[in-house]
Structure prediction request, 174 residues.
Amino acid sequence: MTAIPADFDARFFRSALGRFATGVTVITTETAPDARPLGLTISSFNSVSLDPPMILWSLTKSASSLRHYLHARRYVVHVLSSTQLQLAKRFAYGPQAQRFDGVALSRAPGGTLMLDEPECAAWFECYNLTQHEAGDHIIFIGQVERCHRNFSQPLVYHAGDFDLTPSTEPLSST
Prediction:
């Protein structure tokens, strides 16, 4: 059995996908071999496995930073909080060098470049385990080596724009 062609265009599909709210992340790493900071805003982030701990995210094949992420050994996924809207916008557009202007940086415990942003809802330092081609995107699978979380209200992407979630309290403290 094979898939039948879609009965809708890309614009309609994008609108339908926008009905699903997603979290907003900034993913950082460094270029090789010159170690320039690299970062971008991504909403295609999800969990894959608890044992071993793994996550996934995807990047369009036309992204200028794709080759750097393909060859990066590690990266950090920063889950943005509702107070970090400007950070999400900063890393969504423009030249890489300008994205980092005035942004404090630090290192994750394993040495990977990360944003020095204590307001992030969570962060995950990942080993770049594997990538898979899927249509016009590359899916990255990261094995999580270290992570941290806060109980900040997350920033959400919904219907083509940033949004907030209604709850400020976690469902459980674990």
